[in-house]
Amino acid sequence: MAKPPLTILLCAPRGFCAGVVRAIDAVEKALAIYGAPVYVRHEIVHNRYVVEGLKQKGAVFVRELDEVPDTDAPVIFSAHGVPKAVPETASARRLFAIDATCPLVTKVHREAELHHRRGRHVVLVGHSGHPEVVGTMGQLPAGTITLVETVEDVARLLFQGDELAFVTQTTLSVDDTREIVEALQSRFPGIVGPHKEDICYATTNRQSAVKRVAPLVDAMIVVGSANSSNSQRLREAAEREGCPLVRLVLRAEDLEWDLFKDIRSLGVTAGASAPEVLVEEIIDAFAQRFEISVENVSTADESVFFPLPRQLRDQAAE
Ligand code: SF4
């Protein structure tokens, strides 16, 4: 029986960002230079496929440093960043720490510190419990930084005076964050912060591409992990654009084929921590059931590159 036709609109940019490439490279280079084991605090990036692949090469993932024995082996901090107490503990234990925090997250840490030094209370816009938020809150003493997640949270803030500043998580919804920042500026006209917010180029670009494609297709697939903030924001962006069927999936085996049997057009994107091989796996799975034609829809060119963490750069060059 002839396969039904399906047009696939492939969002670009999609998938790995410069911070994720750097973090994965850091673990692989550390394994190549120092051999296994290499300890990694938390998932190096939020993707189970990536984490499992690194485990097979000798990476040992831990939740906290107390799971790391006294060792000469490297201990790598994830792209999401860590509270200040973590490198301090590593140093006190004389562990060989390698910080793979994305430079764009580090930039937010430095902004928060600068505001604090200038006597401002810092409001962090972000999602409670996300490792990046835990890391940014942990740059400042307790009680000097407050998390807000919604416009309603802004209405409940009890500050007075102008000594306020804001920073944001890097992987938020551009639209939601604009509303929250506007609410902050309206309640606290003297609040200082970045020009718009701290959402990174990769998050912004992937959301823009999804907004272009989602209104044009019968269904949209976001390749990524459920615990990946930027992947969840891509799913939400597609839903808001009115796409009738949106699914966030890690692998082709997660697809519920019944839902897709009548579609004639499909948008595909991938979160910043999802490798391209998983996008190809999803497209191959559709090619087995449909006569597919694939078109690229590009809304931005990306050429951002971050060098390896300092501790690995010289060794890698040798
Ligand atoms: S999503 Fe943005 S902030 Fe996060 S690792 Fe990638 S470039 Fe860095």
Notes on the structure:
The chain has helices spanning 18-34, 48-57, 85-92, 103-117, 131-137, 151-156, 174-187, 201-213, 229-240, 257-260, 276-289, 310-317, and strands spanning 5-12, 38-41, 59-62, 74-77, 96-99, 121-125, 145-148, 164-168, 219-223, 246-249, 265-270, 291-298. With 318 residues, it is of the alpha/beta class. It is flat. It is 40% helix and 19% strand. Helix 9 links the parallel strand 9 and strand 10. It has twelve helices and twelve strands. Helix 8 (201-213) packs parallel to helix 9. The strands form three sheets. Strands 10-9-11-1-12 form a five-stranded parallel beta sheet, sandwiched between helices. It has a four-stranded parallel beta sheet with strand order 3-2-4-5, sandwiched between helices.
Tags for this model:
flat; five-stranded parallel sheet; 318 residues; 12 strands; four-stranded parallel sheet; 12 helices; binds iron/sulfur cluster; alpha/beta
Short structural description:
With 318 residues, the chain is of the alpha/beta class. The chain is built from twelve helices and twelve strands. The structure holds iron/sulfur cluster.
